[in-house]
Every structure is written in C-alpha cells, then in structure tokens.
Amino acid sequence: MNLGAPGHYFGKMRGITRGSPPRVNGAEILWSWVGAFLGIAAVACIHRWFLADTDLRLLIGSLGASAVLVYGAARSPLAQPRNLIGGHVLSALVGVTCWQWLGFVPWLAAAAAVATAIALMHLSRTLHPPGGATALIAVIGSDQVHAMGYLFVVVPALIGPLVLLLVALIVNNIPSDRRYPEFWF
C-alpha cells in the first residue's frame, strides 16, 4: 500500500508543504535562550521581591508559552507587542468573567473562556495562543486565583507580559540580524 499515492488520505494535502521546519543557526538559538532565561527570570524575581508575601501570582504557565514566541519566534505576528499584551489581557478578562458567571459548571466555564478568548482575540487582531491558556488559568486556577477576581487581569496578565516585552525590546535588538518588534499596533 503506497500511502503517498494521489488521492490517498495521507497523500499530498492542498496547501501543506512537506518537510521539516527550517533549522535555525546557533546564534539564533543562543539569543532565544538568553531572552527566555532573562525574561522568565525577571518575572520570577519581580514576583519574589514584591509579591512573595501576598496571594498574588505573577508567574503563570502561559508566560512560558509567550516566551517561546517572543524570544524564539520574534518575527511572528503572534509575538508582537499588540498580540502579547492584548492577547493576555483580553483573555484574562474573558476567563475571569466566565468563572464568575459560569463557575458553577466548571467544564462550561473552561470551554467558554477559551473559545470566547480566541474569538475576541481574532476580532481585536490580538491573537496570541498563550492567551487561551491565560483564560483557562482564570477558570481552573486555585481558590487564590478565583479570589483575585479582575485583579488577575493586572497581576499576572498585564504585568507579566509587560516584563517579557521589556526584556524582548533589549535582548532581541542586540544582534544586528534580529529586530523586535516588527510592528506595535
């Protein structure tokens, strides 16, 4: 059975290019590593210095995914400041609202939060995939996260990405062959 035969389900699909993603050079890998290390370290240190004695959380999982985009794929439209900040903030608003209105049915709140966040990010041209995780965190987070209410939109969903952005503006512009951002708005 030839799986690559024309017309076969696994054959050539329209609009899909076969092959592996292109390799990046060692310098690109190094600058991505430096940016991600410094960005996440900055968020974690700010949390430790200013928020360690509070119930607030600055470091959330979706910021790790943002670091991949902002430092590892800095030219992607999904990694630009508008998307980074707008995607997290809008998604946090949606997530908190869905928890408050639908939290009595957690599966419904989770599904509505992620789906609505995606739709609103599309409509506002702020699509940032980690935003979906931020919306979900607002729903499935701990009692401490839920007790924050709309403060979750500021800490971590606004301040965390702002810190990543500040580090990206420095690190991504040190090498002459990298430029960040590609656009602001």
Structure summary:
This protein is 61% helix and 0% strand.
Walk me through this protein's architecture:
There is one protein chain. Helix 1 packs antiparallel against helix 8 (about 160-170), helix 2 runs antiparallel to helix 5 (about 130-140) and helix 4 (about 105-125) runs antiparallel to helix 5 (about 130-140). It contains 8 helices and no strands. It has one domain. The model is unreliable at about 1-5 and about 5-10 (pLDDT under 50). It is mainly α and about 180 residues long. The longest helix is centred in the first third of the chain and has 26 residues, at about 25-50.
Note the gap between the termini.
51 Å
Whole-number radius of gyration? Answer: 19 Å
Q: What average pLDDT do the residues reach?
A: 92
Question: Structural class of the helix and strand makeup?
Answer: mainly alpha
Helix-strand sequence? HHHHHHHH
Fraction of helical residues: 55-70%
Let me know the largest β-sheet.
Answer: none
How many distinct folded domains? Answer: 1
